Amino acid sequence: MDPITFSIIRHRLYRIVDEAVITLKNVSGSATTNEGHDLMVSLYRANGSLLMGGVGFLHHLTSAAEACKAIIRRFKGDIHEGDMFLLNDPYTAALHTSDIYLISPIHYDDQLVGWSACFVHVYDIGAMSPGGFSPQSQDIYTEGFSSPGIKIIDRGELRNDVLDTLLNMVRNPEMVSLDIRSLIACNNVARDRFRVLIRKYGEEIVDGACMTLIDQSEQLLRDRLRELPNGKWQSRQYMDVNAEVHRVGLTMTKEDDHLVFDFSDSSPESPYSINCAYWASWGGLFAPLFPLLCYDITWNEGVIRPIEMIAPEGTIVNCRRPAPVSVATVGAIQSVNNAACTTIGKMLAASEKYKGEATAVWHANHFAIFLFGQNQRGGQSIGILTETFAGAGGARSFADGVDVGGEVPNPISRMANVESMEAAFPLRYLFRRRMKDSGGAGEYRGGVGAELAFVPHDAPDGGLHYVVSGKGTQFPMSEGLNGGYPGAPNSYLWVHSNEETAGDAPLSFAQSLESMPGEKESVTWGVYPIMGRDGLYVQWNGGGGYGDPLERDPAAVVADFEEGVVSEWTLRNVYGVVIDGDAGELDGPGTEAARKAARGTRLQREAAE
């Protein structure tokens, strides 16, 4: 093919996806979608294989490919121009029931030439808990509406019977209807733009460019893998739920141009909804692989071909129906993502050529708190604290991680402004800021996470309720790399305050956790109220560090201390840096002596072991 034509078609495919994403965001009324960017849009070939992966949460690129294939199998002979299909069954292809895929065939001259697929986390799905995360569910039957595939648009006509059935099962049908309609609009744009592309260049040329693009991606990734060292690398992630500990264990093997991700060392499926099904784990390992190994390669079926996954049935990473999975996206899937990020990072760090691409784990633990209740205008509000998308960057082999810097699996994630949340819910933020000592220590420091606190405000019911599905308060999940320390774990504190405990310092005036009056109760799993004078405090994890903390530039440690992101205790006891007590300036000889002593202590400990 003419290389100029090929390049133009490739860029037009990118633009189709970008325009569809813009449409999705503009039509949606949910802050989860248009602020947090909990979304995905991609293009697929006529057989359902991935053609052009888009932005958003990258876990869904491969899962939506399986969703397309499931629709092809289920509706064989009944797929027509103008149809759209809805799928959200985790045991068919989706990650959990709240993530609805809307899948649209693309026809040209009455021939099926491709598919577009998109998803959002819908406002509500009718699960036990509002918002879809259902930590109290014991099986999938209480996790909301679930479909292995249903036609929602038939030859261009919306099937109101199907839509009305879905809306009849959710708490806020108006907002869920808007979610569904945003997906429809997104697919309409993708389909129309794809048809325009074929009309201009012809079906044969466009299809040839698509096949070339996939073959090119495969060849580029195989070439890169051959340049990387052969070997085995391991990672373990631990999750704690109601005093039970669950493990996601990964051994990644690289040989020649082939990568195998083996999760056989993982715990049996859990009675709690942190489990995930097979296709969710498949997406979870690709979420970091796409940006870390294929940052300059088009994300499509060609990237998938050199990859193999082993996930034994009945484990937490490949659970059996009807095991609960509603918290999967921030549970087992995220741990799969973290483990893959670590093993890929170790492999890259072992290569002189690609060492600069190595990174410690970013934002390993979404806290995903859903709020629900009557808002200040008398309506009902359901939504997530979008700070869960804010993240923290893992340290690189040459630089610190980015403070509150997002996450690898979603390049466009972000959190909403405080004012957006206060407008949607009857609450008032006391503070939201970077969290001291949350970034993993290292020669290069992990980006810090943050802390926040809020209280009810102007609430008709006296407050609201929240769903918390924390599973990483006991174990740090943001792994460090090459001797770097992990980022701090999450923490959730329900602050019980009243006139007696508040005294002269009411909770609504507090500017720090220490100044918040009242009893502080740790909460991690379930549904809780926040009423009256109570408050909620949350801190989220930082990124993992890279390299030995005793090798960090002392001046950089002092700068971190002065900025308030590293405490004096950490400065002295982790980094071995000494400052003059009166002047607050770096004590060079004292630092050299402290670090020498710390290294000696390490050697003694290793000898004793």
Sum up the structure in keywords.
609 residues; globular; 14 helices; 32% helix; seven-stranded antiparallel sheet; alpha+beta
Structural class comes to: alpha+beta
Rg estimate, integer Å: 25 Å
What distance lies between the first and last C-alpha atoms, to the nearest angstrom?
63 Å
Q: What overall form do the CA principal axes indicate?
A: globular
Q: Approximately how much helix is present in the residues?
A: 25-40%
Overall number of structural domains? 3
The strand count comes to 20
If you had to describe this structure to a student in words, what would you say it looks like?
- The structure is a single chain.
- The protein folds into three domains: 217 residues, no CATH class; 188 residues, no CATH class; 59 residues, no CATH class.
- The chain has a seven-stranded antiparallel beta sheet with strand order 2-1-5-4-3-6-7, with helices on both faces. A five-stranded antiparallel beta sheet has the order 14-15-20-17-18, covered by helices on one side.
- The chain contains 14 helices and 20 strands.
Summarize the structure.
By secondary structure, the protein is of the alpha+beta class.
Layout: helices, strands, pairs:
Blueprint: H1 3-27, H2 31-34, E1 39-45, E2 50-52, H3 59-74, E3 84-87, E4 99-108, E5 111-121, E6 150-154, E7 157-158, H4 160-167, H5 173-201, H6 203-227, E8 231-241, E9 244-255, E10 258-262, H7 278-293, H8 301-304, E11 307-310, H9 332-349, E12 370-374, E13 380-384, H10 418-424, E14 427-434, E15 450-456, E16 463-469, E17 491-496, H11 499-502, E18 519-522, E19 525-531, E20 535-539, H12 554-563, H13 568-573, H14 588-608
